[in-house]
């Protein structure tokens, strides 16, 4: 896996020490998310990949270490603003009542982002179509696992993040759909300056969809390092 630092880092974490819940085994890692590209988080099951992602989103306790977004320390942001800009997408998608389209727009329907104008319906439907979601009106509770994963991904994308933290976003997808999703993310991350991705993936080729790309290997003992 190559590393290319031609662009500056969007997100950087240095000797970040976090724990899944207070008092549990700690995870220690440092890494850099390149602008317009991705950091791929690798490691065996239980090594702490999801925990590290959740720590970067300020969803689990950070014991020590530092995190910067576009050069600004995490502490300079309120937690809600940070979580919007550094947006975590869980491994198991959450489904709400309503259609597939309603589900993409949930944060706006619930008025979580009061200061952000909702994206136009046409833009959302166009993105859904690009991801192979051909019926925006379909009841979300009838969507397959792979369709729901793509709905959840679009919900995250339309929340307006700078950095998307994606926990195995291609796990429920067949090879063709996986390529479509990776291509979509590759376009998204380059569409505006200041964007980056962090991706947990067990699929070696997933990282190859992005350039520049960096990696962190988390080990069984919870320590992580760039290879
Ligand atoms: N809330 C929690 N309470 C107790 N233990 C937890 C909690 N969350 C995670 N753990 C434990 O912390 C360790 C790291 O979990 P984590 O989900 O971060 O691993 P992972 O590398 O993402 O694994 P996988 O590849 O299987 O998803 C695991 O041993 C897990 O059982």
Helices and strands, with pairings:
Elements: E1 9-18, E2 27-34, E3 38-42, H1 49-56, E4 62-69, E5 72-73, H2 79-85, E6 86-89, H3 100-104, H4 106-109, H5 121-130, H6 145-157, E7 163-167, H7 175-191, E8 196-200, E9 213-218, E10 224-225
This protein binds adenosine-5'-triphosphate.
Describe the structure in your own words.
By secondary structure, this protein is of the alpha/beta class. It starts with 8 loop residues before the first strand and ends with a strand. The protein has one domain: Rossmann fold (3-Layer(aba) Sandwich). The protein contains 7 helices and 10 strands. The protein is globular and about 45 Å long. Residues 20-21, 24, 43, 45-51 line the site of adenosine-5'-triphosphate. GO terms for molecular function: ATP binding. Residues 11-226 form the ABC transporter domain. InterPro entries: AAA+_ATPase, ABC_transporter-like_ATP-bd, ABC_transporter-like_CS, P-loop_NTPase.
